[in-house]
Amino acid sequence: MPEETKGPNPVSPTPGGEAPQAEPPSPPAQSTVAPTEKPAPATPAATPAAPVGDKPPAPAAAKPAAPAASAEKPAPAAAAAPKPATPAAKPAPKPEGPKPEPWDSELVRSLKSQYGSGIKEANTYLGQKYLVADRSIVYEVLLRMRDEQLYDYCVDVTAVHYPKREAQFDVIYILYSFHHNERVRVKTQIADGEHLRTVCDLWPTANWLEREVFDMFGIVFDGHPDLKRILMPDEWKGHPLRKDYPILQQDNEWVKINLGIESAQ
Hints:
Layout: E1 101-102, H1 106-115, E2 119-125, E3 128-133, H2 138-147, E4 153-161, E5 169-177, E6 182-190, E7 195-197, H3 206-217, E8 220-222, H4 252-259
Parallel strand pairs: 3-6, 7-8
Antiparallel strand pairs: 1-2, 2-3, 4-5, 5-6
């Protein structure tokens, strides 16, 4: 009887007509190596489910492509309105400068007792002493300063012009005492055209100093031995240190006659 061929292996009948039972396959051997743990994949964000019965949302419309650059430049936009100007901060007030302080001394008390209101001021300013005397008594005050107070050197005689003032000129005598080793200024005020008595008889150094005041300001000192110009030519017109004398002004007549030109500027 032919062998039965069932399955991949032929099975031979055993005596008694019973087929031998096949042994169950042995389970696969388990590996002793611990599997490497892989990180869990990131869970994608949940997309909200569309409500039942609604249509699914339409896909987003694609953005239109940017138009090609035009060869012509676009018209400039209208200029923005200017911002209002920020008000400037007020400058800090300037600190007050030094001020004259009263000069109280035996000399001042003696002069005030003799001349009263003829001594208009007696002050010190930054340590510098000065008197302001009336024009009518200034020569007497200077004489006393020389003889009684030993101010034996006349350092300078000068002037300052104040055109808007009634008494336009300050005439200042700067005196020095070798005995006391100190300076004092004696001032007086005169109007334009008024004269002062010369002090050349008190201090010979006043000779050229008074000539300069006469040359630059036009102030006349009565009794001066040789009152004439000392810086400008004798025939020059005007007095250059007066404030109403323009800086470019000149004596055109003198320039033309003596220099042979129309202008020396």
